[in-house]
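Sequence only, no structure available. Ideas?
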Amino acid sequence: TVLAYIKDLLNRSSLRGYIETNKISHKFKFSSDWANYIVKSLVCDGNLILSNGKVELRGQSDNLDEKSKENIESIKKIIKNSQQQIIAIKDLHKKCSLNPKIIKELIFYMSKKREIHSINGNILVSSDSFNNIVSSLNNHFLINETLSVSEFKDITGLTRKNAIPILEYLDKNNFTKRSGAERLKGEYSFE
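Reply:
I predicted one. Tokens follow.
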């Protein structure tokens, strides 16, 4: 059954914690409408949670095995020891002895838990470093209306290589709003 398939798949990958509805329609060769109908029925029955096309088991715990916990700590240590706690994923692959697929799953899990921020799929920023960036933005916007790329680089100490994707991430998440070459304070509350 569909529910058994979802449970089996999610139990085999405790890191991801969800399955996309299109994977269900592909597996069972259902139309997307039919797969959505079945999933919504399972949601109504109290078995599943549906959010943005992602299906989770209701009450599923995030218990990790010891190896996954060790691997997460290893990744956290690599990020923490990187300049400004920011690292390119390709550099993480070089510094970490784990299989790239496992790294990808661990990054997803850590992002979901808000331990790191994955910027455009290429850069990882620790939550501490991200919070420092947001705090710097808050201080900047207390006395300034706009923010240029060079000002952002100056207040964060980032290189242009990291500053641009992080600014785009901040725009996407409403911390800032792009207006031409500059940024305005976004709708996100800094308080």
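The chain has a mean pLDDT of 89.
Hope that gets you unstuck.
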